[in-house]
Design a protein that fits this description.
Elements: H1 8-20, H2 24-40, H3 45-64, H4 69-83, H5 94-110, H6 112-115
Length: 118
Amino acid sequence: MLKMNEDLEGALRVYLQLLDVQEYFEAHEVLEEAWHPLRLRKDPLANLAKGLINGAVAFEHLKRNRPQAADRARRVIVSYERYKTLAAPNIVYGALFMEACEKIELLKRQYSPVFEGV
C-alpha cells in the first residue's frame, strides 16, 4: 500500500493513484489525513477535499456490493456533488483537484444506473 501523507499535494497524488487501481477505501484514508488539518484551520479547500473523500467512499460501497450499496453510494456522493465546482485551475493544486474530479466523474459514468438523477 502507498504511504499516507498529510501533505495535500502528496495526498492528492496518492489518491489519484489509488483510484486508478480501485483502492477506494485507501484513497479515502489518504486524503482524509490531509483533510484534517485543512478542516481545523478552516481552509477553503477543506470542503473540496471532503467531497473527494466522499466520492471515493461512494465507490467503495459499490465495490463491496453489500446490501443497500447503491443507496449508500448515492447518499455519500452528494457531498462530492456539492463541492466539485470548487475545483478550478486558479486554486492551490487546482490541476490535481480537477484531475481527481475527472476520475470521480468517469467512475460515475461507469456506474451510471446508480447515479442517474443525482
